Amino acid sequence: MNYKNIRIAFFISSICLFFTFASGFILQSQTAKSDSLLPKTHVVTIKNMKFSPDVITVKKGDTIKWINKDIVPHDVTETNKEWQSTPLKNKEVFSKKISSGFSYFCSFHTVMKGTVKVKN
Amino acid sequence: MKFLHFTTILTLFAFLFIPPTVHSQDNATLSDAEIAHVAVVANQIDIDYAKIAIERTQSKEVRQFAQTMITDHNTIINLAVDLVKKLGVTPQDNAVSQSLLNKAADTMESLKNAKKSEFNQMYVDNEVAYHKAVIDAIKTVLIPQSKNAELKALLKTAVPILETHYHHAKMTQSKISK
User: Fold this and answer.
1) Residue B23 pLDDT more than 70?
2) Global pTM value
3) How many domains does chain B have?
4) Mutate to test the interface with A, among B168, B170, B174, B175 (most CBs of A within 10 A)
5) Side-chain half-sphere CA neighbours of A119 within 13 A
6) Among candidates B74, B153, B46, which has minimal Cα distance to A89?
7) Is A87 on the interface with B (CB under 8 A)?
8) Taking CB atoms and an 8 Å cutoff, what residues of chain A touch B60?
9) What's the CA gap between B81 and A67, in Å, rounded?
10) CATH at B160
11) For residue B4, is it within any domain?
12) What does the pLDDT look like over A73-104, one tens digit per residue?
């Protein structure tokens, strides 16, 4: 038996195995990194006459979905009334892609308020 | 106006807490059919107040508040009606409902006859007091006394709505007082 050849073969196998794991690890971390750059969708639930969460922090380009889980209608109105959703009945959804932060309220129930913050 | 609020609150609780030996009813506890009737009447009263407000107010805040009252209280009434139909229950008139309606008639007369300059304050002050009275009655009497789970759940669903109305009325009250 040629022990020298066995040792060389073992060494080469070890090197190959190392590079296989290393490349797998690098590929996984690259995928995770690119996933974190993709826009996300966040949910604000309207329930028991509150926006929940009432303060939400998202990235520019993310989308927020407001879902009305109350029996009465609500809407999402920008505080300076620059834009406003249509009235949302129970189970209806309003989506908005976020470009900058803002405060908002429900124009039917003006004590209901929320804030969207944008992080870099 | 404060006298009217006080009598409404007093009426709502008097029939429910007066001992049976004094009360004209055999038992101070309301049945589910009676609770359903009180719930519908209490909501309808606020709708009727709101309709007067929409007719008489010049204030955008008061009009918007009143419109919300109509929308929300109609939603609650519709759900209550759907529920009693589902349960095969006929809402039963009772002394509490009658007393609420009698007092509401007086309040509506006052609102209709109020001077233009006094109307907004009168309406909103009444809304603050009325919602507080109804919230207290639902929490301390109607919910504990209701036996049917779905009726109890509907009443519990109404509480945050009414509490928001109360706070909205308070906010409107402070705006028009300025």
Assistant:
1) no
2) 0.82
3) 1
4) B168
5) 6
6) B74
7) no
8) none
9) 26
10) 1.20.1260.10
11) no
12) 999 999 999 999 999 999 999 999 999 999 99
- Taking only the tens place, the pLDDT of each residue in A2-28 is 778 888 888 888 887 777 777 776 667
Chain-chain contact of A72 with B75 (C-beta, under 8 angstroms):
yes
- In this complex, which of A71, A73, A112 lies closest to B164 when CB atoms are compared? A112
- The confidence score (pLDDT) of residue A78 equals 98
B168–chain A Cβ distance below 8 A for any pair: yes
Q: Do residue B71 and residue A72 have CB atoms under 8 angstroms apart? A: yes
* B27 and B20 Cβ atoms separated by less than 8 Å: yes
pLDDT digits (tens, 9 = 90+) for A30-89: 666 566 789 999 999 999 999 999 999 999 999 999 999 999 999 999 999 999 999 999
pLDDT (average), residues B83-91: 95
Q: Which amino acid is at A15?
A: I
Task: Determine the structural domain holding residue B171 and report its residue range.
Answer: 29-177
Chain A residues whose beta carbon lies within 8 Å of the beta carbon of residue B164: 49, 109, 111-112
Pairing type for strands A55-59 and A113-119 reads parallel
ipTM for the complex shown = 0.84
Looking only at the bridges linking them, the beta strands covering A41-47 and A63-68 are parallel
d(CA A51, CA A106): 9
